[in-house]
TrEMBL record:
Acetylated. Deacetylation by the SIR2-homolog deacetylase activates the enzyme. It holds the Pfam family AMP-binding_C. This is Acetyl-coenzyme A synthetase. Mg(2+) binds at V536, H538, V541. Its cofactor is Mg(2+). Residues 85-467 form the AMP-dependent synthetase/ligase domain. Belongs to the ATP-dependent AMP-binding enzyme family. Residues 530-608 form the AMP-binding enzyme C-terminal domain. It comes from Ancylobacter moscoviensis. Residues 23-80 form the Acetyl-coenzyme A synthetase N-terminal domain.
Amino acid sequence: MSDKIYDVPAEWAKRAFLDDHAYRAKYEASVRDPEGFWGEEGKRIEWFEPYTIVKNTSYAPGNVSIKWFEDGVTNVAWNCIDRHLPTRADQVAIIWEGDDPSQSRSITYQELHDEVCRFANVLRNRNVEKGDRVTIYMPMIPEAAYAMLACARLGAIHSVVFGGFSPDSLAGRIRDCGSKVIITTDEGLRGGRKVPLKANVDAAIAKASDVEVDHVIVVKRTGGSVDMKPGRDVWYHEAADLVTSECPAVPVEAEHPLFILYTSGSTGLPKGVLHTTGGYLVYASMTHQYVFDYHEGDVYWCTADIGWVTGHSYIVYGPLANGATTLMFEGVPNYPTNSRFWEVIDKHKVNIFYTAPTAIRALMQAGDEPVTKTSRASLRLLGSVGEPINPEAWEWYHRVVGEERCPIVDTWWQTETGGILITPLPGATRLKPGSATRPFFGVIPQVVDAEGGVLEGACEGNLVIADSWPGQMRTVYGDHERFMQTYFSTYPGKYFTGDGCRRDADGYYWITGRVDDVINVSGHRMGTAEVESALVAHPKVSEAAVVGYPHDIKGQGIYAYVTLMDGVEPSEDLRKELVNWVRREIGPIASPDLIQFAPGLPKTRSGKIMRRILRKIAEDEFGNLGDTSTLADPTVVDDLISHRQNKK
Ligand code: 6R9
């Protein structure tokens, strides 16, 4: 914890939407009268049929049901595009910056309209209708945003799968939501390297043989050669040539699903987090405006990938709902050089910059010079998301990148929450490095102890949210039981975030990280169970247990304890083979950083692996193993300690 406090800069106190006093008053109003508050706020988007019911939500055990603006009718693509046309047809909606610094494009709202309509018509010609699921497996190119908005325009439900996931992971996601249409590109391009997206789609379809995929729409990106299956596969540019740039936006109910996004939990396969239309858009739009203090004419850049929720809410939906100019970046922070982010900021005069602690830490290691040789004069506000930001990285971001004039908004939220829940507001909140500070409007965080008792004042425990907000997920796709079990059974009547948290005497929240079996690697969520099941699928592995350990750049690294089949000898080659195996099974983000071959794992007499002990060993805290007396064979612990792998 850092005890430094940064006051709101004078310039900010003047320009921002809200000062501290206004924040407190508005927050009070939002929790005193949610119906009145959101009833007004819901009008920030356009409705074809206005709502009369604002909030209809219940966290009741066994009967969780979440509905906002339920009798309203609208369309997300209409709100993100058409309604801006009378005033902003020629304003740039999307600035695209390619992996190769010589490539960039600007797309106006009129062009966005035409492109999205064309894409929607291509889908409509392939029988995509309201409620159908469409899988999008694409790199960061404007066509990915067109594809998302085209689905929204038709009332189809998109499921974006991160381009770094393997064919196996993609197959699981196609199967789970039964999507008959897949949109991809020939290849992706990141950091100068090509990613065989279309070939991965072909492999995934072969694996998901129980699902009938009718159409694969392929956008040409690199021109690399791909196999096209006649009748199933179509080049987007050929199909788009045959359609018009007009396509009506299909009116949908506020609770009509907008998208599914798969995310890792503590058990089982990734869950399909389902977000719906009206409440999600109102919340994404409102948070984007206030948290980033977005004003007319600002150029806004979020570096996330559209494969993650941050890309959904804060590259596409929030900014476009607000008529903003949003920058989409295809590349990576260190290609061609470590100055890339800052050069892009200068090139496009970016005012608001939102990135992840892992990127900040990696760039910090490269020293100040790659930053200071750029101007960054356009920058006004910095943001952070994805994991706790350590105070050292915060200070560097503030001092070197923002030259002490840009506030940092450390935004805490989750795939499940749809938008930011705990965050500073730049004109209102004094900052403490490492703290996400205070709740956004309408959000009621509570800190509870293990028994669910609500703690008051300064305290530490688990973070829950006491009542619903409009951006909240509505269900796990196809499995409402799992939704209730995962989020509402630990502390009945409350939404359990899975995060630990401390609240200080000023009422500031400090997120301490996951308290469940989810690890956060470079801001990406991985379930330990997923990595374990990939490892045990290898013929030489008998058992595996995976935990997180502190990693200087990634935040957490993946530490795997592996027990081999009888007769198999541990070796460096086998270690490499297992790392590659997991990369192939799940994707590069799941690669174990350290593998320890363990003849036995610490188990209770009932056979449960005691992860607490494995975590302590991986964290290098042998002195503090706690009670080991319930272990079936306490001697395995000594062997584990003596063969601990060293951090990289
Ligand atoms: C938006 C996103 C969610 C988990 C969340 C928490 C961690 C995100 C954070 C943060 C501390 C922040 N997290 N933002 N922890 N401070 N500002 O990242 O969604 O991928 O679902 O991850 O990330 O542990 O529970 P998602």
